[in-house]
Amino acid sequence: MSQASQDDVEQEGEAFQFTGPLLVNKLQEAGIHANDIKKLADAGLNTVEAVAFTPKKHLITIKGISEQKADKIIAEAQKIVPLGFQSATEVHARRAELVHITTGSKQLDALLGGGIETGAITELFGEFRTGKSQLCHTASISTPKAPFVQYGCWP
Q1: How far is 36 from 151, CA to CA, in rounded Å?
Q2: What positions does the domain RecA family profile occupy (predicted)?
Q3: Reduced to 3 states, what is the DSSP secondary structure of residue 31?
Q4: Does the domain spanning 17-80 belong to CATH 3.20.20.80?
Q5: Per-residue pLDDT of the chain (155 residues; tens, 9 = 90+)
Q6: Can you give the residue ranges of every domain in the chain?
Q7: How far apart are CA 132 and CA 135, in angstroms?
Q8: How far apart are CA 2 and CA 95, in angstroms?
Q9: Residue 30 burial by CB count (10 A; 0-12/13-18/19+): exposed, middle or buried?
Q10: How far apart (Å, rounded) are the C-alpha atoms in residues 73 and 142?
């Protein structure tokens, strides 16, 4: 592979990098004392997201967290985790980019709105011998092909 195409692949990989929940220890880098972080974790707030969404009233009830500390902790957590408003247009644009995996049946894909949606949990239930396992097998075979078929690269 040439260097130019390798750089393109690396840039594409960076654009689609997934970031999951951040551990509450990340607040220590923002200047929150380790003892306060331990108190938050002991109270069940194990991620920065959980701290950012927790009301100040609840943080104050944690032993050793004063109102000033709660304000500082919430401010730092909200700097790390953006809690901004998203318009319906932005949400719609993000949902339009979702890839759907085919089930192998055009009728079932139509019922599911285009197939099995990526980035979501799809649950199958029903009586035995109704094709649940077969559908899962078909989806597992179709999944690796999905991005290639979309861009016309699949042989």
Answers
A1: 49
A2: 97-155
A3: coil
A4: no
A5: 444 444 444 444 444 444 668 899 999 998 999 999 999 999 999 999 999 999 999 999 999 999 999 999 999 998 888 777 888 998 898 888 888 888 888 898 899 888 888 888 889 899 999 989 998 888 888 776 655 555 544 44
A6: 17-80, 88-150
A7: 5
A8: 34
A9: middle
A10: 45
| Tokens standing for residue 141 | 């075979």
Overall residue count recorded for the chain in this entry: 155
Cα gap 35→56, rounded to integer Å: 18
Largest CA distance in the chain: 63
Whole-angstrom Cα distance, residue 85 to residue 40? 26
Under 8 Å between Cβ of 103 and 138: yes
The strand pairing partners of 101, in sequence order, are 116
Burial 72-105 (b: 16+ CB within 10 A, else e): bbbebbeeebeeeeeeeeeeeeeeeeeeebbbee
